[in-house]
Amino acid sequence: MSITFLTLFTTLRCNNSCQHCLYGCNPNTGDDMSWNTFNTAIEIALGHKINTINLFGGEPFLNKNIFKMIEYCLLKNLQIIIATNGKMLSTDNVYDKFIKITKNHKDMIRITIGNDKYHLPFFNPELIGKKIINDGYILVK
């Protein structure tokens, strides 16, 4: 049996404060994965022929290096899963930057948004989900 994907906690910060969070992520605490740690993890993944990286958190889009991380994964021809609550991605500046760096790689990206009873009190991702699908990205529910 081989490992097909690697989950990386890009940050333990989140713009929500879910009571059920296993990791205690919230807006006021938590650390970001450094670029050096990320780069080392990617090199290890490549060495083990892992072809998919799951960018997880907290909220991945809170890590100041997230776009650099996404670009690097695409440069290395890695599939990407982004697990997000959708809040930051629903802002024009974040979404526009995301589109700019990923528009030629839509087939390599899967986006999953917390669309469940635990996350909906904080943000309803339906509109950003429709936008993601309309722009040709794959939304995993």
Radius of gyration: 15 Å
Head-to-tail CA distance between termini: 26 Å
Q: Give the strand order, joined by hyphens, for the main sheet.
A: 1-2-3-4-5
Give start-end ranges of low-pLDDT stretches: none
Level of helix content?
25-40%
> How much strand content do the residues show?
15-25%
Shape: globular
* Total of helices: 4
Largest sheet: 5 strands, parallel
Structural class: alpha/beta
What does the average pLDDT come to? 91
Order of helices and strands: EHEHEHEHE
Number-wise, the strands total 5
Description:
There is one protein chain. The protein contains four helices and five strands, in the order βαβαβαβαβ. It has helices at residues 35-47, 66-75, 92-102, 126-134, and strands at residues 5-9, 52-56, 79-84, 109-113, 138-140. The chain has a five-stranded parallel sheet, covered by helices on one side.
SSE inventory with pairings:
Layout (H helix, E strand, L loop, with lengths): L4 E5 L25 H13 L4 E5 L9 H10 L3 E6 L7 H11 L6 E5 L12 H9 L3 E3 L1
Parallel strand pairs: 1-2, 2-3, 3-4, 4-5
Helix pairs in contact: 2-3
Features:
single chain, 141 residues, alpha/beta, 4 helices
Question: Could you give a quick summary of the protein structure above?
Answer:
This protein is of the alpha/beta class and 141 residues long. It has four helices and five strands. Strands 1-2-3-4-5 form a five-stranded parallel sheet, with helices on one face.
